[in-house]
Each structure stands twice: as C-alpha cells, then as structure tokens.
Amino acid sequence: MLDDVSLSLHAGEAMLLTGPNGAGKSTLLRVLAGLRRPDGGALLWDGVPIAEDRTAHATRVAYLGHQDALKPSLSVVENLHLFARAGGGDMTAALKAVDLLPLADLPARLLSAGQKRRAALARVLLAQAPLWLLDEPSLGLDANAIVLLGEAIARHRAAGGVVIATTHVPLPLEDVRHLALPGAPDPADRWWDEESSALSPADHEGASA
Amino acid sequence: MMSLFWAVVFRDLRLALRHGADTLGAVLFFILTGTLFPLALGPSPDLLRHMAPGIIWVCALLAALLPLDRLFGAELEDGSLDQLLLLGLPPALVALAKITAHWLTTGLPLLIAAVPLAIMLGLPTATLPILLAGLLLGSMVLSLVGGMGASIVLGARRGGVLLPLLVLPLITPALIFGAAAIDAARTGLPWGPDLELLGAFLAGALPLCPLAAGAGLRAAVE
C-alpha cells in the first residue's frame, strides 16, 4: 500500500503526515512504532535498525493510536498507572497538562470522547519517550484541548523530542515539516502550504534522531 | 523489568475485580456442571466416587477455557494490546503476565472450588491433597497452553470456536495424568509418577508457551 516513502527526523523536529483516507498514514505510524514490520526497507534509530531489538525501540516510542485504549471500568488514574510506572512520568503533571485532573478518579466509561482522547494523550506524556507517534491526536478535542495539545508538543520538542503526527485538520504547530502521502487527490486535505509538502522517492523508510 | 511485569499482572487483577461477575462465572460454571453429573448418573455413591476424578478434571478444564478468548481479545479490540507491547517488556513477558493473571483469577478459584465438589462426589478425604496437587500443576499448565492458544487464534474470525479445538488436544496429557494420580491414590497405588509427569509438563510449558504466545501477540497487532 505504501511504497517509496523516505523520511528522516532530527531531535526537536516535528512532521505532519497528511493524505487522503487509506493512504497509509496509520500504517506508516505503526511501522515507525515497531508494531508492524515493513514489507521492505529499513527503519533506523541513530543509525541502528530497530528490527534488531524491537523491545528496546518500544521504550523510545509513545504511540497514540486510533483507539484510546482505556478500560471503561478503571478510573483515569488506574488506566494510566501502568504506563506511568513504565515511562516514569509524573501522573499529576501529565493530567494537568491535558486538563483532566478534576476527572482523575472518574471511571473511563463516564468520560466523553474528547476527554478519553485527552486521557490517551496523558499516556503519551507519561511515557517520557523521545519519539511521539500521534495518529490524529486532535480527534474529538475541543479548541481549548487542541491548544493544550500544541503546548505539550512544543514542550516535548523544546526538550529535544521528535513528533510525527497524522492529521486532517490544522494543528497548532510551529516550524513543522510535511509529508503528503500519495493517494487519490483530495483538495480538502490540502489546507497546508503546497510548497512545504515533500515526498522524496526512495526504497526505504528511515527515522533518526 | 520484573516490577513492570507485576504491574501488568496487578492491572489485570484489578480489572478482574471490577468485572467480578465475569471472573466468578468460570467458578460457577465449574460447580454447576459438576453438580449435573450426580443428577444425570444417578445418586449411587460408588459410581460417583469412581467417576469423581474424571468429572472434576474435565469440568475444571472446560471452566478454565471460558475466559480464555477474552484474555487477549479484549486487549486487541480496544487498542490496549498496542500499548502493552510498547511498554518495553518483551512480548513473551507481556503474555506471561496475562497468563499469570488468568491463573490467579481462574485457576486458583477453581482449585478452591474443587474441594467442596470432591467432597460432594464422595471422594475419600485422604485423596484430597493429591487432587489439589494435581489440579495446581494442571491448572498452571492449562493457563500456559491456553494463553498460547488464545494468542494464536487472536484476530481469527471464529477464534472462540477455534480455541477449544486447539487447546483441548494439547492439554489431554495433563488430564490423563491428573485424573490417574487421584485414581492411583484412591486404590492405594503409587501416585507420585503421575504428579511428576504433570510437573514435567509444566516445566516444559513454562518457558515455551509464553514465547509462542509473545510471537502470537506480535503477529496479532501487525
């Protein structure tokens, strides 16, 4: 589905993946997370193929998928507890960053879609990983939460982190690179500056930081 | 790494506690099917005592199978499996943590519930320790083999149907030796070798099943 995609990122950089539905944005993110093996090509971290040790790569990745991966019967804190333990992040700070502190002890089934998304974003913060892979992070978020998302990403980049996000709507990011995946041309998807979209043909995918 | 392993186990235990009805379901199924046998076979104490080891083992096996297809299925459906695999634990340890939680929430309660069932079926009390020792080893083997099976059928269309077909044949040796140990104890024969064979089965399953299960989990999220 996805051929001839090449990208490389350095510390502090952000990249937006755009393209029509079914272009392979989510697939590319899963490949970058090490969840999915690429059919061909290589994925490098600091010059080392991640396929050598996918478990070690997992500790460098904070992945936000389509699904929020919350257990309805557990409270927000209980849902995130395991990931705070794994990543070593501060629970209160993470919940504050996504404005969920007042709802921390509420079972996840009582949260609205946007609040669940914010809880999933808190998990990304807790992972304290250098590489953030966000699959449509703004899904269901209100304007206020999107601002918070932009601030969180800015802080992460200032600390030397890398962000790769797929999106269909503009995100409040500065100095961001674009990768437009080919597919059926969809003018509605081309809200960004045409010049900055870049796609270079190559037979491998590479990410380095 | 071990603290993270136990954190996954405790997360599952907490989930099992919140879904108390689901967790107790397997135990209730075990007791109910066990009590159906006297009704179906007639109340002859001799016959029931004779059949008790087989009844208890088969019922325990089927009851422990019940929660297996949700073991990883629920995690795959809501995207939690991706997150579990990105924790930084090797997939085999993630699988082993889930299997451990399955044993603690299903195998252990079955072990306790087996005592009243055995007494009800008229099994001599002297054979109870051997029954429990056999079930202890056997339920661990079942959780391991079952967890492996559950991860292999993960994402398959009719996984729930496929799972017993895959797991039951693999688990028959445990059933044979477990029931034979109680029979041997009841008739005064040496029961040690049967339990030792069960232990050998467990010793083989303990390293191999989580590895296979981990590979199954990796394949499921691809």
Automatic annotation (TrEMBL), chain B:
What's an example of a GO molecular-function annotation for this chain? heme transmembrane transporter activity
Transmembrane segments in this chain: where? 21-41, 47-68, 103-123, 130-155, 161-185, 197-221
For the biological process aspect of GO, one term held by this record is: cytochrome complex assembly
Name the membrane topology term.
Multi-pass membrane protein
What does this protein's UniProt record list under function?
A: Required for the export of heme to the periplasm for the biogenesis of c-type cytochromes.
Which keywords fit this entry according to its UniProt record? Cell inner membrane, Cell membrane, Cytochrome c-type biogenesis, Membrane, Transmembrane, Transmembrane helix, Transport
- What family does this chain come from, according to its entry? Belongs to the CcmB/CycW/HelB family.
Q: Where in the cell is it found?
A: Cell inner membrane
GO CC annotations? plasma membrane
- Broad class of where this protein is predominantly found: membrane
Protein name per Swiss-Prot or TrEMBL? Heme exporter protein B
